[in-house]
Every structure is written in C-alpha cells, then in structure tokens.
Amino acid sequence: MKNDGAIGILDCNNFFVSCERAVNPALNERPVVVLSHNDGCVISRSDEVKAMGVKMAQPLFQVRKMLDQHNTAIISSNHSLYRQYAEQIHDLLIEDLGNKVVELYSIDEAFLDLGSPDKLVMLGKHLKRLIFEKTKIPVSVGLAETKTLAKVANHIAKKSAKTQGVLNLYGSKFTDLALQQTPIGDVWGVGPRSAIKLKAKGLNTALDLKKTKPEKVRGDMTIFGSRTVLELNGIKCLPLEVSEHLAKSIAHTRTFGRPIRSFEEVKKAIFFFTTRALEKMRWNELQTRNVAVFLQTDRFRPNFYAKAFAYRSIYHSDVTSEIYDWVDRCLAEVFVEGMEFKKAGVILSELQRSSVVAPRLFGEHDFNRRHELVRSMDELNMRYGRDVVYFAALNTDGKWQGQSEHRINDENHDIGRDAIGKGKMFKRSIRFM
DNA sequence: TCTGGGGTCCTAGGACCC
DNA sequence: TCTGGGGTCCTAGGACCC
Fold it and tell me: For strand C, which residues in window 145-164 of chain A come within 7 Å by CB?
C-alpha cells in the first residue's frame, strides 16, 4: 500500500434493520428495531428509533412502551439473513474494486485502499448507488488519509444530510473542523473508559486529541492511544489487512431462557454450544487444541459468580467426541452444586488450519477415521437440516433455550440454509456480531 | 418480572529459571 | 536495617470494536 494513498470506509446504515426492510418494504413506513438473542436488547435501530433516544444494546423492557406508542416494528434477529446480505455486498465490492484493496472489517463494514486521491467522491457515490440498486441496503462512505480519519468522515457522512452519504476529508482543509465537531468518545479506539480519563485532562474533541503528543496518552490508553493520535494527524499506523483473515478464536455463548441448577441441564447446553462452535470451526477448515468453558450466574443479582476453565491438549482436533471429553473436564471445574446459572459458553482457541496440523505420534489412524466421520455428519446436517444426525451426548430440546417471540416470516426469509447448502456459510471470515 | 454475542489486542504481574 | 537481580513466558483481566 502506498503511504500517500486514500483510505475509504464503507459502512451499511442500520444494517440489521435495513436487511429486514429490504425483504419487507412495508417496514419502510414504520420505525424498526431488531433484538438480540432472547429478545433482551435492542441491537439495531432505524433512524426514527435513534431519534427517540433508544441506545445501542439497551434492554427492550426499558423502552418497550415508547416503541409501541410509535407503532415500532419489533423483530427478533435473523442472522442468516444478515449474513447473506453481507456476502452479497462484499461480492459487489470485490467485483468492482478487486480483492487486493478490500478489507472486510466486520459484518457491515469494509475498508478500501483507494490509492490515487483523484475522483474519490465520485467513486464513493458510485459504490453507494451500486449497492443500493442491487441490494436496497443504504451505505455511507468516509474517505481520508488513515482509517481513523476515514471513520470520522464516515460518522459525519452518516449524520449530515448535506453530504448525501459520502464525505471526503483527504487533503481537505475541513479536516480540523470535522475533528473539532467530533466528541472525543466518538473517535475510533477511544472507548468510554479512556474518554473519561482524557476529558479529565481537558481533551474534549478529536481535534484536542490530534494536537496532543502521542506519548501523553500512552499511560491512559496504552500504545493504541499513541497510534490513534498519529492516525488523526494523517500518519498511517493501521494498514489495510487484505490477506485472508484467519480466526484466532471461535465461541458460542448464550444466556439461558431461565436459570438452571441441574448439572445435567448445564451439560446439555454446553454440549450443544460445543457442537455449534465445532461446526463453525470445521467450515473454516480449522482445528483447535484449547477449549474453554465458562459458567455465570445472573450478573444483575448479588453474589455474581463467574468461572472459566480451559483444557489444553497436545494435539489439535476437530473430532466432536474427543472434544466433548475435553469440555467435560472443564465443566467439572466450573460447575457448582446449588447455584443458579444464567449464562454459559464455549470458546475454541489455538486454532490451526487442518491442512497443516502435525500428525499424531499415536492414534493417527483412528483420529483420521473419526475426522472423516464428523465431516460426513456435517454434510448430512448441511443437506437435510441442522442436527439430523448427532452424537448421543447432544440434546437439542433443553429448557435452557432462549426466547424469540418476535420472529417474522421465518420460513420464507431464513435463507441461511441455502447458503450452507452451497457450502458458503462461514467459509468467509466475517467477524460477526 | 425483563438486561446480547463474538471477536481482538495490550499489559501487569506471577511463575520460573539461571 | 536487612531481604539478589534480571530475563522470559504465560495468563487473567481490561478495554475496545461491531
């Protein structure tokens, strides 16, 4: 990447809500929210809902009344739908720009290495139009010298109607003005904790931060802070990562529909989570040798208990039955008789590509046989639906299952199944919400 | 009554070694 | 008053992002 090139960030507006509206245009006439697992929190808001003051990840019960008063459509999340739109948009970007210059940063964002600073606004508007025509998803584009500045531009493009969704700050005399209008907590990389510390030092805007010496913020914000200051000054510290992204960990964690005391119930849930995480791992052609299990009680009640335990094997594996054994050992370490558990999870780490995993000194033949077995099970489940075949230890009808009262049109719109059938699902490394 | 899930990276400090 | 010191590795926890 040339160091004087321009960087773009393309970001889908209200992504989950926009996907729901794309499949169901009637929703364009109403405020819309999409809910988290268990219908607990609001995780995507239409502009009207943002204007009501509803915050990201705000608990539904706190705003339910207000949403109803405004005739808001309240929808349980449908992640396979969102994943399909994300892939379609990624494909459009790569077709248009080439895969060497597109970094898929998250489910609804991509960084672009645009090289020459000429005609940036035209390019941004072209991409915006292209994506809307093909998918009906509105996007915003920010352009600047660095990722952090591009984020600032994007932020303003999203809010200000004047920009029509595209703002270029590359070499612009308005950059400092834009930074002055940006509260320090809105800067990419400055979270709520750091914002408090920086404000205490009299730094209130992105411009204040830009004018600080990088060393000054190191103490409060680690080396990230120094990099952010440099990036605000137009010095690239965070290169585009266009090479294939390899996941470093894969997790499946859930809040239970109701508290669970019994060891058997907890175990069912943990094995179910393990199964889901392993499926995802195998789609990515990875193996793990470090499995962690955690259990938590209700974090909003007194005597909150949370414990994690990790088992590390000397061998990598993707064989369900073997990894069930590892998980079992972890479970014995974290479970406490008499406690009411509200949340649990399984995290796979120390991942390695299956193709480069070292062979075992002993039992290699048996491992390969079992490896083939789980791959066949994955294929059957892919073709005929989830959990058509599964290990006896897996039980899918536990009391721990969460609630999704606000599902709409599930049959028609859960097109994720087709995506799996084509072997596409999870193949791409999208860091997913 | 009701409060998400999946990631990454950095650092302090303990354990261990010589 | 005194208690060696320096390096490395690992992990738990914090902070952040979407």
Answer: 151
